[in-house]
Amino acid sequence: MPDQKDILKNLKTSSIDRRLSIAKASFLAGTRWATSNATSFFASDEEKERKRKKVLTEQANYLVSEIGKLKGSIVKIGQMMALYGEHFLPREVTDALNTLNNQTIAVDWNAILPHLTEQLGHKINDLEIDPQPIGTASLAQVHKATLKSTGQVLVLKIQYPGVASAIDSDMNLFKQMLRLTHLLPQTREFDQWFEEVRDMMHREVDYTLEAKTTLRFADYLKDDIRYVVPQIIEEYCTDQVLCMSYESGLPVNSPAVLSLSQQRRNKIGEASLEIAVKELFIWGEMQTDPNFGNYLVRLAEETNEDIDKIVLLDFGAIRQFDHEMLTLAHSLIHAGYLHDLDQMVNAMKGYPFFDQIPSDIKPDMAKVFLLATEPFSSLSNNPDIPEGVMNSQDQYDWKKSQLHQRVMQRASKSMASRYFSVPPKEFMFISRKFIGTYTFMTVISAQANIRKSLNF
């Protein structure tokens, strides 16, 4: 819940206001850059590099603080750039953009209420709404409400006014800001990815689509008691308001979750892994935002049940994959399951991105993939698993494995490193999903056998 001191009285929703704010911030940051270059003219190369990184960090942090004040789509754009920008942007910039995920400034209820009234009309009188939000994000904030006639507790995800119509102009502003402050790489790949982010933004503000997706995932999981999907209350949904049942739970990294027994944490971890596998191999659509804010853990004692559950909160970042991509992912993971280098190389065939890579480079790339899929292998076929990381039941210890660091280190030293610089966007989505799932496992110190989820 946001601090009462951190409340925005109103939103800068007009294009002119937002342009002026970004123009001012960009100008000041650009001036700092020019001043730094001037004062470093006679410095050594080492000193110039040190100053460059320092100024880059300072201006990136400054710009991020200004972006955070605007709320809306430009903040979400920054968050997406933080998530995927490692392929395009300097480390100092992505580090600064990552702090946008921690900003929880709410918009004052007096600025939200007129918008909500316009959206719901007379139906707003059916609800008793708590003016204090229980959650805030870049595109919306969430308020708890009670249906007066039945006492049912609901949540209203209220899109900030003007967000949807500002996406295209905010995208252009963000790109201009990066260019003016010398943070933008001038590459065709970046431009292509930028357009992908634009499409993602438009999908995220389509609440009609999100409601349908939530209903579809609820149907997928209706017979699996390990998961909770909020119920959509269609009567109070509009194109800018999403009404759902209130679902209680604890943050993934809460002390109560982290202090559970190893066996209970393992079960929660298995559920997290299994839904990722089902999304990719059975349903063909995946929640691509690995933000922990999209999940809660409902402890068994809270509902007097025998099992802890994962509450799935957000279905705005669902992405569907075509048959070609799903076949490739299946083949790569199957090769990792078998821990077979030749099969991993063969799995790459027929996909344009891999076909353009020289054949003598592919085995080196395949070794990186074999490492990334280490949890899918077993002690019987993978002698390279570090000691103590997997037990005799093929339960993998993500925290002890330090897998992400090892993969990054191997990839950076690989002869194929330049081909990893800008992989296909679909590949980035799937990669990020599994990084998010691996991180989930690491945070709760879970040990689980992911092989049991696969039908190989």
Question: Could you characterize the architecture of this molecule?
Answer:
The chain has two domains: 125 residues, no CATH class; 207 residues, no CATH class. The chain has 19 helices and 14 strands. The strands form five sheets. Strands 3, 4, 5, 6 and 8 form a five-stranded antiparallel β-sheet that branches. A three-stranded mixed β-sheet has the order 7-11-10. Strands 1-2 form a two-stranded parallel ribbon. Helix 1 packs antiparallel against helix 2. It is globular and about 65 Å long.
Q: Give the amount of beta strand, in percent.
A: 5-15%
Rg over CA atoms, rounded to whole Å, is: 23 Å
Task: Give the helix level as a range of percent.
Answer: 40-55%
Number of strands: 14
Shape: globular
Number of helical segments? 19
Largest sheet: 5 strands, antiparallel
- What is the total domain count? 2
N- and C-termini, Cα separation: 44 Å
The stretches of 5 or more residues where confidence is low (pLDDT under 50) are 1-5
Average predicted local confidence, pLDDT: 84
